[in-house]
Design brief:
The structure is a single chain. With 234 residues, this protein is mainly alpha-helical. It contains 12 helices and 3 strands. It has 2 domains: 106 residues, Arc Repressor Mutant, subunit A (Orthogonal Bundle), CATH 1.10.10; 88 residues, no CATH class.
C-alpha cells in the first residue's frame, strides 16, 4: 500500500457528487470496481463542457492510473473494467449506448441524471451524434498539482496534444522555468504554448540567471516587440 501524502495546501479543485450517491448508491454497491468506475465517471463528466456530456469506454480504458487499480478475481484489467461498467449499467447509475456491437469498444456512457438521460435519448433517436464533436480528455495523473494544472489554470483547456508537449517540457526544463514562462505569457497576453516554448528555448540557449530577471520590463519588451512578437495577438 502506497502512503497518501495528504491534500495539498492552497486552492484545491473539488468534484461535486450528488447527495443520492451517498443515500442510495453507497449502501448498495458491493463491488470495488463498480464503485471506482462510478466515482471516475462523476469526476470525468464534471470536467466536460456543454450540456451533452458523456464518457466513452476508451476514456476509461485509456487512463492507466485507473486501470492499475482495476484487478481482481483472476481477470485482467480490461476484463475487470468491462465487468465493473456492466454492474454500473445494470444498477442504473450509468446509461450505455453500444449500438449493435457485442464488444464494449466504442460504447458511450451517460450519467443517469436529467441531463444524461436527455443526451442518451437524443442519441438513441438520432438527433445527436458524438462524431465530429470535441471531447475533452481527463486523466487522473493530470489532477495532481503539477504542470498540467498550472497550464489549465493560466493558459487554457488541456488537450491530449498539449499534454504530450507539457510532458516533454517537464523532462527538458526545470519546473520553475516553466512556471515563470507561463507567467510571462499571461502577463503579455500571449496564452499560447508556442510562445511559452519559445521563451523556454531562449533561456536554454542564451542562459537564464538572476541578473536576467532583474530588469523585467526590458525582458518583457524583448518578448513582445522582439523575435517572439509574432506569437502575440496585438
Amino acid at each position: 500500500m502506497s502512503l497518501f501524502g495528504g491534500f495539498p495546501p492552497g486552492k484545491v479543485r473539488f468534484t461535486p457528487i450528488p447527495a443520492q450517491f451517498f443515500s442510495d448508491l453507497l449502501p448498495e454497491i458491493d463491488h470495488l470496481g463498480e464503485m471506482k468506475v462510478t466515482l471516475y465517471a462523476l469526476w470525468f463528466l464534471e470536467r466536460q463542457e456543454g450540456s451533452l456530456r458523456y464518457i466513452t469506454y476508451e476514456d476509461f480504458a485509456g487512463d492507466q492510473r485507473l486501470l492499475a487499480g482495476l484487478t481482481g478475481s483472476g481477470q485482467n484489467e480490461l476484463e475487470y473494467l468491462t465487468d465493473a461498467l456492466g454492474r454500473a449499467v445494470r444498477r442504473g447509475t450509468l446509461l450505455e449506448a453500444r449500438g449493435d456491437q457485442a464488444s464494449p469498444d466504442g460504447a458511450i456512457y451517460f450519467l443517469n441524471s436529467p441531463r444524461g438521460r436527455a443526451a442518451y435519448q437524443a442519441l438513441q433517436e438520432g438527433k445527436w451524434s458524438p462524431d465530429g464533436q470535441s471531447h475533452s480528455q481527463a486523466l487522473l495523473e493530470m489532477e495532481r498539482p503539477n504542470i498540467y494544472k498550472l497550464y489549465e489554470e493560466n493558459v487554457g483547456p488541456l488537450t491530449p496534444m498539449i499534454a504530450d508537449l507539457l510532458r516533454d517540457a517537464e523532462k527538458s526544463y526545470p519546473y520553475d522555468w516553466i512556471e515563470e514562462a507561463i507567467a510571462k505569457a499571461v502577463q503579455n497576453n500571449a496564452r499560447k504554448w508556442s510562445y511559452i516554448q519559445a521563451i523556454l528555448r531562449s533561456w536554454q540557449e542564451e542562459g537564464r540567471d538572476g541578473t536576467n530577471r532583474q530588469d523585467s520590463q526590458k525582458d518583457n519588451r524583448s518578448y513582445t516587440d522582439g523575435e517572439l512578437g509574432y506569437l502575440i495577438d496585438h
